[in-house]
TrEMBL record:
This is Cobalamin-binding protein. Its EC number is 2.1.1.13. Pfam families: B12-binding, B12-binding_2. GO terms for molecular function: cobalamin binding; metal ion binding; methionine synthase activity. Residues 90-212 form the B12-binding domain. The lineage of its organism: Bacteria, Bacillati, Bacillota, Clostridia, Eubacteriales. Signal peptide: none annotated.
């Protein structure tokens, strides 16, 4: 088994101590940008395993939270070796929990995963009004906007936000992905989103397909 396969396996099995050990040995070699990309890809593959295990019921929400924290640690360790090359980032994404909802676990997991996938992420936080999304989109001109919500009231807030982006003349230039348990296929259509998911790993796949 190669060291990258070992890393993927360790991430997939949430073996934090082993992941950190592998990474510290790795950075002591003063790795190149290309080598760091291999590490990130190996970790991404590990996160896909985590997502699959969650879908099968082998992992639970607590495991997803831990995987997001682990991924954040990975990024922090290898970030100094990524340099400032514009080729690092695949696209820009603005994410936030909509007004009336204070939950951020799912958003934070998704944030860590899209960051590791190569996106430039702008997290505007929780309980964010329409104006906050509109202003941030106007400011950074992202490719994607991600809206999160766990409460059923979040559905109307998501629709208001999409409508606000339309009124501001910004909707046609972006893709909108919705996240959270209340969001269904029907709700996504009602809100006006391009896609929805309750699984962070699946959400990353969708976002990556939009910027290829």
């Amino acid at each position: 088994m190669s060291k990258w396969d070992q890393l993927t396996k360790a991430v997939g099995e949430l073996e934090e101590k082993k992941v950190i050990e592998i990474l510290h040995k790795f950075i002591n070699t003063n790795p190149s940008y290309e080598e760091v990309q291999k590490v990130i890809k190996a970790c991404q593959a590990g996160m896909i395993i985590v997502g699959d295990c969650f879908e099968k019921g082998d992992y639970f929400v607590g495991d997803l939270i831990f995987s997001g924290e682990l991924l954040a640690k990975v990024i922090a360790i290898v970030k100094p070796f990524l340099g400032n090359s514009s080729s690092i980032k695949k696209g820009k994404i603005v994410i936030g929990t909509v007004q009336g909802d204070l939950h951020d676990i799912g958003k934070n997991i998704f944030k860590s995963m899209v960051d590791a996938a190569g996106f430039e992420v702008y997290d505007i936080g929780i309980d964010q009004p329409v104006s906050a999304f509109v202003n941030k989109v106007r400011e950074v001109q992202p490719d994607i906007v991600g809206m999160s919500g766990v409460l059923t009231v979040a559905l109307e807030a998501m629709k208001d936000t999409v409508d606000g982006l339309k009124e501001a003349g910004l909707r046609d230039d972006i893709k909108v992905i919705l996240g959270g348990n209340p969001v269904t296929k029907e709700a996504c259509a009602y809100i006006g989103g391009d896609a929805y998911t309750a699984n962070a790993a699946e959400g990353v796949k969708i976002c990556r397909s939009w910027v290829v």
